[in-house]
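Hi, here's the filled form for the chain we discussed.

Project: internal
Contact: R.S.
Residues: 173
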Amino acid sequence: MLLLGFSIAARRAELAGLRLRNITEDPDGNGLLVHVMVSKTDPRTVPVPYGKNPQTCPVLAWKTWVERAQISDPDRHAFRAIHATGSVQPKGLTPQRVGDIITAAGARARIPVLFTGHSVRSGMATEARRAKKDPKAIAQITGHKPNSKVLHGYMQIVDRWDEEDNALMGIGL
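And the returned structure, exactly as it came back:
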C-alpha cells in the first residue's frame, strides 16, 4: 500500500477508495495504470512503471498483494484489513486506517520525523523534485495544476547543505 501510495502521490482517501478495477496492467507491459477515481480534485490516471529494485517496486508489490490476498472481485476495495489470523477481510480500509498504517510503518522504519498519511504524497513530490523531474510531470502524478502553490508546498528541502537544496551552493561564492 505504501509503495503504490507513494507512486500515485495518494491522499489517504484516494488509497482507501481504490477498487481492484481501478488498477490495471498497462497493455504494453510498462507497469500499472492506476485510475484514481475518489479524489479531492479531478479523477486522474497515473502510469506507474516497474521499479529498478524488486524490493521497492510498486508494480511487483501490487501483484504480490493481489495474489496473496486472493483479490478477484473488481468491485471490492484494493486494500483491506487483515485479521489477526492472517485472513484478508472483505471490508475496505477507511482513510483514517490508511493513515494509521502509514504512520505505523514510519515508526517501524524508525523514520526520525512523524510519518503521516500525507507523507507518501509529500515524499513523492519531494523526491521527484530532487531527481530534477519537471514540475509539470510531478503535477500530472499528484493531480495539481502545473504551477500550483500547493504542489510547491509539498516539495520539502531535505538537506540544507545539499547542492540541490541550497540556492547558495555552486554559484561561485
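Let me know if anything looks off before we file it.
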